[in-house]
Amino acid sequence: MSVQYMIGPKIVEWSMRVHYVNSEQYPHLHQIVEDLAQRARIPKPRIGIAAIAIPNAFAFGRSLNDGRVCVTEGIMRLLNEDELRAVLGHEITHLKNRDVLMITLLSVIPMILYRIAWHMFFFGNRRSRQASSNAVLVGLVAFLFYFITNLLVLYASRIREYFADRGSVLLGNNPAWLASGLYKLVYGSARIDKQKLKEAEGLKAFFVNDPSRALNEIHELRQLDLDRSGTIDPNELQILQSKKIELSFGDRLLELLSTHPNMLKRIKLLSKYKP
Fold this sequence. Notes:
Layout: H1 9-16, E1 18-20, H2 27-40, E2 46-50, E3 57-60, E4 68-72, H3 73-78, H4 81-96, H5 99-124, H6 129-170, H7 175-190, H8 194-198, H9 214-221, H10 234-241, H11 249-256, H12 263-270
């Protein structure tokens, strides 16, 4: 939910078991990030490795000068160079657009409304009958607006994911690289033990994709891998461009309550971008 964005950098680092690496330890990773940062015209972020098995990447930081890009041990074993570069381009775009800061500021609104609602419900019963009725009414209105504004924050988060995908392409990455990378991340997450997925449950808003939805998404995405190669190549992505995507009511509802777009819709949009 949107409250995940309120988590500070130190908690992210501790929860994800992040350790920062220098160019001597991971020269190729540093080279990719440095090139993408130069293309995006932002300072090179600090680079970290998260000691978790879930294949993913994330970026955070309070400002451009405080930017950090992290990859998990799982993603380093799963993606090829082009796919990793495209995923990192997505994260660099998040930093460039200051997405974490933007969504964090937006998340303050529903949190304030929730506090107001809780205060009215809890303390309203201690007052006179008339005052208690008014307090409950204010609490109900505050809770209603909390729910609405929270949905708006989630919507904004999903839109920022689309923008970050587009940004990766603008940084010189082929859309098929990112599509294939996203497909592999879903497949990789679907194979992870559920207990390990719970380790990052509170921080999944920072990830490239939502690993907790992987089991549902993998069934949709398998239809894109026509040659069963485990990747999505440019030809398969081109075929998707002419296909019509239909989502069930359950899928649309799940997306409405998520920080990330439906993966099939997301890759469908990538098919429209020119390399």
